[in-house]
Amino acid sequence: MLHYQPNKDLGETSATAPARPDGGGPKLHVLLAQTQAENAGAQEISRLLGAGLTARGYRVTNLFFFRKSDSFDEPPDTLYCAPSRPGDPVALLRMLWTLGRHISTTRPDAVLTFQHFGNVIGGGVTRLVSRAPVVANQVSSALSMSWPVRTADIVMGSLGFFDRITLNSQDMQREYSRYPAAYRSRMVHVPHGFDDKALTLSKEAARHEFNLPPDCVLLGCAARLHPHKRLDMAIRLLPDQPSWHLALAGQGADEARLRQLANDLNVSDRLHLLGEIAPSRMADFLACLDVFVFPTQAETFGLAAVEAANAGVPSVVTDLPVLREVLSYEGRPTALFVDAADHAKLSAAVSKLLTDKQLSDELRQNAKGLRLRYSVDAMVEEYGRILDQVI
């Protein structure tokens, strides 16, 4: 077996098995492992999960392969395998060696991996150096993975490298329905929970905090600056609407291209790149906005859009099946869905939310149910149940 069971031949009994969190013995140790340390969606989920498991009596260690952002809001008990992304084979081998050493020396009772590289690399190294069960948190669309990573994920999931594979939406379950039966037998649907980012600042005070113009129409998005997020579609809204500004909270490799596009369109003075924002400041950023614009090409959940809608910010999002699933409560939409690749339709949708108060109020009212649908407590409880099964 790849996880702990009492060995009667060695005289072990269930009394020598790892103690439950509420059993009065040593705390079960859970290692949360993922690729890069930055203030993004997967890291927010692991932060909430780690805090929830800690509150339930687990000992939690956070492990990142490398640090991507200097402003990362680091959770307690965090380890790194490398100071930055490995740039050559020697640095990669050094990172993998450190990863194995961290896993073997921390001796976790279970390892929870996040994101596709975190699952493939973290799950593989765990199996080499530890008997701990692996729960893979699959937050990547199969279409967004390169074929070598997708192939490795399918093989590892089918052969049992992962004891459980959690998926965060029903749409994602449908996407993975063509995977081998052995892989699918390990899949579990666990919707993300989210931290209720209630707005405490006025719009004027929030904009002052971020040095944003006080008297403009401000669109905004919180996302990695990556081509898949299609933030260029939001920038292209500005030339036709001189009163509109756009604020982007995030960092990533697409920043230079986005800056160049704004310069080419002569809207650089109305594009505000704020960089990465800590989770504790996200509510203040959302308080700045008149409309949240989410033109992403692909998502498996869309945590940023859920947070924005829950905060009461009128939202225009790409018309994806997963976003229609996630951004609804009791069948009622909490955002306006649009073909974001169609410039005219995207612009019209934003204009509609800015001028149709009844529609904005209706979406805002519907969104009040999201905090019930995506409870952090429910997410943590489900992971606790999974840990009970695999340890």
TrEMBL record:
UniProt keyword terms in alphabetical order: Transferase
Keyword Transport applies: no
Domain Glycosyl transferase family: residue ranges: 203-368
GO molecular function: glycosyltransferase activity
InterPro entries noted in UniProt: Glyco_trans_1
Superkingdom of the organism of origin: Bacteria
Keyword Transferase among UniProt keywords: yes
Region Disordered: start-end pairs: 1-27
Gene3D superfamilies assigned: Glycogen Phosphorylase B (3.40.50.2000)
Name of the protein in its database record: Glycosyl transferase family protein
